[in-house]
Design brief:
2 copies of one chain form a homodimer. Chain A is mainly alpha-helical and 183 residues long. Chain A is built from 7 helices and 2 strands; from the N terminus they run H-H-H-E-E-H-H-H-H. Chain A has a two-stranded antiparallel ribbon. The longest helix of chain A has 36 residues. Chain A is elongated, with a radius of gyration of 21 Å. Chains A and B meet through helix 1, helix 4, helix 5, helix 6 and helix 7 of A and helix 1, helix 4, helix 5, helix 6 and helix 7 of B. The structure holds a DNA duplex (28 and 28 nucleotides).
DNA sequence: CGCACCATGTAATGCGTTACATGATTTT
DNA sequence: AAAATCATGTAACGCATTACATGGTGCG
């Protein structure tokens, strides 16, 4: 899947591995993420498969960089993947929920400490979607009018993130309440 | 993490790998899942680490089975993990959202087909949490009064699942609406 | 002076999936 | 007669993380 994420970004413009990481970090990170090392490995594989090409650009002030460009075959591969509907639910792995599930024998205070910490993290994430992500999308739309359609979809995915975090925070508050009063 | 999921279940009672798979499939599957082959491999590793022991029980009508029991060291290991708060957000990987993010050049009908399919899947999952999971928890609580506290936490995690699916369905409906009218 | 940023990559290890292999009993 | 359930495991492969390795520029 990382493969397609990289093709998706390169379909807008040629980029380095480092830049791809940055793009992911401030856009798809809440539904798809990767480490730099894995990005470099995957780019290499994509090049071997003929879905991207690369050239090394020398820079004077900074380290040389390898710029990747999507090929026609790469575009076809991406389009084919995008058009194929997902026929299953994405498997989830939520460590916090898993821990709570098995925590009945723990002391009340220990459980609460974990939930408070998560509540704070999710509040921060919620604020991020509302302020930072939202602003970035508005800016992209203003700067590149050709991307209006794209921005509509980005905004839809951002809203999903926002609503997910709202739900998570609400659920954590209710669960904290439950454990404080009726547990 | 699978390691701890298995210890968590074995902390209730001794079980086989096959049984552990079944338990996971109808309780933690929406926040933690695994394939049978991986469960067997992990059980073997747990035994090597001394966190579980196993004995083979012969059966006449059915294949022999290997029953795993948690050790004192295993219980300590589990408790230590449970008590340790999660200091980060669980990384998410949502293929449907990822696809939508890059789908601007797709035909409207292609996007809609994918969203409709997912909406149906999430509606089914929602119904499952409301009907099946909910019923299983009520039954466990009725049958084993000693597990009242456990059942409270199970119910909290079930509610998370239910609310998550409600959100997902609502978001899919809104996004379908958006693409039908303003895209 | 130290930290963050830019920039790329390899190696070791771990975790997970898919495929393979077997085989009796029970249900449809 | 076919499919599902019970029951366990190995092997090959793929994807991801962590650690290692390098090194210049810009900013506070």
């Amino acid at each position: 899947m990382l493969k397609y994420t990289l093709l998706g970004f390169l379909n807008y413009q040629p980029m380095t591995g480092y830049e791809l990481k940055q793009r992911m970090d401030n856009s798809t990170t809440h539904f798809w993420h990767a480490k730099l090392s894995q990005i470099y490995v995957t780019l290499k594989a994509l090049e071997e498969e003929g879905f991207v090409t690369s050239i090394v650009e020398a820079q004077n002030d900074r380290p040389d960089k390898r710029v990747f460009t999507i090929t026609l075959r790469g575009q076809a591969e991406l389009r084919q993947w995008l058009a194929q509907p997902e026929t299953e639910l994405s498997p989830k792995k939520e460590t916090t929920i898993l821990k709570l599930f098995f925590s009945a024998q723990l002391e009340r205070e220990t459980i609460l400490a974990g939930l408070h910490l998560q509540r704070d993290l999710h509040r921060q994430q919620l604020a991020y979607y509302r302020e930072v992500t939202s602003q970035m999308i508005r800016q992209a739309r203003a700067e590149f009018p050709a991307l209006t359609k794209d921005a509509q979809l980005w905004e839809a995915t951002r809203r999903f993130g926002e609503e997910y975090e709202e739900l998570y925070v609400r659920w954590l508050e209710e669960t904290i309440q439950l454990i404080e009063t009726k547990f």
